[in-house]
Amino acid sequence: MPRVKKPPRWYFSLRSPYSWFAYLDLTQRYPEVADSLEWIPFWEPDRTTQAMLDEAGVVLPIVEMSRAKNFYILQDLARISKARGLRMTVPIDKDPNWEVSHLAYLAAKAQGLGPQFVDAVYRARWQEGRDITDPATMGEIAGQLGLPAESLATAADDPELRKQGFDCLVSSYDDGLFGVPFFVHGRDKFWGADRLRPFIAAFQGRPGEDVEENWQDHDEFPLFASAAADAGHAGGCG
Q1: What does the pLDDT look like over 134-147, one tens digit per residue?
Q2: Model confidence at 82: pLDDT above 80
């Protein structure tokens, strides 16, 4: 039987500032494309999900970040946020469980509120400095979305959502993901927030030559709403 053609998709992580930058560009500049994509979360699994991945022979490309890379990313975030007129926080993640927020996304998605959830969680993390690995934070965001608090606060305890999350991570493995944000269109793959425009060109069926010629034109970036928070410390910069 012929293989089923997969839809264009993007992999994002709620812990990743570069995924956040890509999300802002994607939804504010190309909302019609954002609405046409499959949104798939990616995160560092906890021991339970890791055991499921081990049993399936799935090895995710997760390595410990070096101190030098961590400091580089802090500098990079300062440059990018300044260029975009955006003030952001960089929270410290102490023994985080990323299932809490990423499985909550799947719960919100099931209610037709996936993009709204992502927007609220990115704002909470990168502009309000809140802990998105705290179930209480998920409960508060559920209230903002008009959902019962427990529907998101307890998502990590739901076996069905756990299985859906496992399937998301297996999908990332099958697609050859090695970092986020990661965009896939047919056989073409695009890694990084700065590869969004070439991905958009592929999605729209346009030749990429004119896009590649000036893909670093930051003057075209939108200016995002500022938050009354200062840049913080290292942590969660994958």
Answers
A1: 999 999 999 999 99
A2: yes
Distance, in Å, from the CA atom of 109 to the CA atom of 103, rounded to the nearest integer, reads: 10
Tokens of 182: 């990661």
Produce one character per residue of 151-181: b if its CB has 16 or more CB atoms within 10 Å, e if not: bbbbbbebeebbebbbebbebbbeeebeebb
3-state helix, strand, coil in the chain (%, to 5): 50, 5, 40
What is the DSSP annotation of 211-224?
A: HHHTTT-GGGSPPP
Q: How many domains does the chain have?
A: 1
In-domain check, residue 157:
yes
Q: Catalytic residue positions?
A: 16
Q: Which two tokens stand for residue 30?
A: 């190309």
CB atoms within 10 A of CB 61: 10
Residue 207 lies in a domain: yes
